[in-house]
């Protein structure tokens, strides 16, 4: 192999030092090897743990009906889709699923993707480009941000939920095509975007509204139909200005994502989305499992009721348990319950304290969340029991008491 003798050092030798730098800043991420047990329990690196980190909000990922449907799908269609959708990968199962998703969300047409990340990084550049403008909430998910960057449109980021700032930016923009992008349930905070107000601004400024309902689909609205149903923006109040996107690997318990909206816009996306056109279609067995999942999402109201009751139980328990602590539970009514700790090392220490008690709650640090807002992201699921939540509240109460400097009152 030819080497350049004048090279005394190469940037390739810097990686160990760069990793050590992440370690020093408490920013090094680690994977754990997991095996599912029962309920919300997981074996993590060989140890049985009660997990509060799954996005399987309705507890469907291990449901026998989904497993059976996936097996049936594999028997009928094989395991791999063998080609991209516009070649020969668009199976009858995927086609039926798209119709079911459109019907379920009450929108004219849906396009089914293999992943949510790929959906957002693909559809945004298909909608807008150089000379156009994107308006993006500061706390949007990474794939909305990356999709915006890939589009080469001008990006205006507005402070989280600051609709006044959004309105000003929309009014000042000379761009002919304007696209507003927002999470509906913010993934690290659990709070809900004011979708009707966003839509009203889009109407006023002739903008298209792309909503990412990754954490709302299956959870929000009557029968889990998502954020549009939650805000009664379906049926006669549905707007052709809304492009609705949701993932199917969270509450739906399977994998993939879809985008739904007006016939013309969805047709355009089918023509122009590179991450759709140049990738192998999702396996049909997943579409089969997703059909079964949609049935359960629609009919098992008890899953959402149980989940809501767990959310209330956690919030009431921590309101008492964390009194006097600087740890703060964010104002969330969704299964994502952020416990703000502040410093990275403290958040990691709390996560470690929980781990020692057999509880797994992930610490989320910058750059995923803003500097100084390291937190535990508690995710609840219908797979949890009351006793599971009580165990977490008890452990956090003990850790908070041990962490806080005792302050004399009086
Ligand atoms: C998880 C998530 C995605 C990505 O979806 P995948 O199917 O996991 O690729 C997109 N947007 C938001 C808000 C998410 O939370």
UniProtKB/TrEMBL annotation:
GO molecular function annotation: 8-amino-7-oxononanoate synthase activity
Residue span(s) of domain Aminotransferase class I/classII large: 49-396
Residues annotated to bind substrate: 29, 141, 368
Subunit (UniProt): Homodimer.
HAMAP family cross-referenced by the UniProt entry: BioF_aminotrans_2 (MF_01693)
Enzyme class: transferase
Function: Catalyzes the decarboxylative condensation of pimeloyl-[acyl-carrier protein] and L-alanine to produce 8-amino-7-oxononanoate (AON), [acyl-carrier protein], and carbon dioxide.
Cofactor dependency: pyridoxal 5'-phosphate
Protein name: 8-amino-7-oxononanoate synthase
